[in-house]
């Protein structure tokens, strides 16, 4: 959609697909809080009533008969800086909250909801009006690395999805710099460029875990020319790759026929890591990268087009790469 804010192309830090969780809500009588972070788009089936009323694909609280506010706390699957929030009220028409706000905090370890309530929370989105059955977009100014967000709705109602877009920032204390996925979103890698993302975002390529369905990978439109599609990734930090994984799982009639990998050295020159190599559909391919140099960016070329579930690049950070990870974490602290 061309009318969506540019920041919505950033990863959803709160998504269940990226490891997020809804750790607490003060009320969820009509619809469960866990729906807030489902990666899928909201759905609605008319005249589907349960014991508590119409079934909604979202979080819905009871009607308030006293002053107050309803809240839900989300643990970010990918802690990081926040560039924008989407409060999606899809299919909530006469029962959406008229206002909402979002706060965020940074917590070490694994605090309980009670412990989180005692922390200092920064306001990310001030109390703002919402429209019903609408994606409500709120751009934010990235300030620091957050681990949790708190959605407040005034006074009650239903929200289908909460999207928290931003940049993941890894905690270097939790990384093994000698052996990690240099291209992982959770370690600080990010998409630098892409030729085509007609069906799905290239950020899916470097997301955590395995793809559960084809839609959780990166897929391009069918090419009708002599070119090929590609995606480039800025690594978490400069390092020496030792093993590449090109995963076409779930892509059966639409996997690329071939692929190649090219690295960028810190001085800007290029190095071939994997020559054009035949791929099989619905397969995890692993390739040893003997003698690969230190690189800070990788480019995946697929021939001529198609879909890829995941791209992994296992190796070790160089001294410069370790400094990059440390500085990124310190700057967002």
Automatic annotation (TrEMBL):
Q: Name one Pfam family in it.
A: Allantoicase
Q: Which Gene3D superfamilies match?
A: Galactose-binding domain-like (2.60.120.260)
Record's catalysed reaction(s): allantoate + H2O = (S)-ureidoglycolate + urea
Q: Which InterPro entries match?
A: Allantoicase, Allantoicase_dom, Galactose-bd-like_sf
Gene Ontology molecular functions: allantoicase activity
Q: Which domain of life is it from?
A: Bacteria
Query: Allantoicase domain: from which residue to which, for each copy?
Result: 19-168, 188-316
Which Enzyme Commission number(s) are listed? 3.5.3.4
Key words, A-Z: Hydrolase, Purine metabolism
Named in its record, the pathway it takes part in is:
Nitrogen metabolism; (S)-allantoin degradation; (S)-ureidoglycolate from allantoate (aminidohydrolase route): step 1/1
Please cite one Gene Ontology biological process associated with this protein.
allantoin catabolic process
NCBIfam families (alphabetical): allantoicase (TIGR02961)
Family statement drawn from the similarity comment of this UniProt entry: Belongs to the allantoicase family.
Q: What is this protein called?
A: Probable allantoicase
Q: Which organism was this protein described from?
A: Amycolatopsis suaedae
């Amino acid at each position: 959609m061309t009318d969506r804010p540019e920041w919505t192309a950033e990863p959803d830090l709160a998504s269940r697909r990226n490891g997020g969780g809804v750790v607490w809500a003060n009320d969820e009588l009509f619809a469960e809080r866990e729906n807030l972070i489902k990666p899928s788009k909201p759905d609605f089936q008319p005249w589907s009533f349960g014991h508590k009323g119409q079934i909604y694909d979202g979080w819905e609280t009871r009607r308030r008969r006293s002053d107050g506010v309803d809240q839900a706390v989300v643990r970010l699957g990918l802690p990081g800086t926040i560039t924008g929030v989407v409060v999606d009220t899809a299919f909530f028409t006469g029962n959406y909250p008229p206002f909402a706000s979002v706060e965020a905090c940074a917590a070490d370890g694994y605090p309980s909801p009670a412990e989180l309530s005692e922390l200092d929370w920064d306001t990310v989105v001030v109390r703002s009006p919402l429209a019903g059955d609408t994606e409500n977009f709120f751009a934010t100014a990235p300030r620091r690395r957050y681990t949790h967000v708190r959605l407040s709705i005034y006074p009650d109602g239903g929200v289908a999805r909460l999207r928290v877009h931003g940049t993941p920032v890894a905690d270097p204390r939790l990384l093994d710099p000698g052996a990690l996925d240099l291209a992982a979103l959770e370690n600080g890698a990010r998409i630098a460029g892409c030729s085509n993302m007609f069906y799905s975002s290239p950020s899916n390529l470097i997301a955590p875990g395995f793809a559960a369905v084809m839609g959780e990978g990166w897929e391009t439109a069918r090419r009708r020319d002599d070119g090929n599609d590609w995606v480039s990734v800025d690594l978490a930090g400069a390092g020496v790759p030792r093993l590449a994984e090109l995963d076409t799982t779930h892509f059966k009639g639409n996997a690329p026929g071939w692929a190649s990998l090219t690295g960028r050295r810190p001085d800007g020159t290029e190095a071939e890591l994997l020559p054009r190599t035949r791929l099989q559909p619905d397969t995890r391919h692993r390739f040893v990268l003997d003698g690969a140099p230190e690189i800070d960016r990788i480019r995946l070329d697929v021939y001529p087009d198609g879909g890829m579930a995941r791209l992994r690049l296992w190796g070790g950070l160089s001294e410069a790469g370790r400094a990059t990870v440390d500085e990124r974490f310190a700057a967002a602290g």
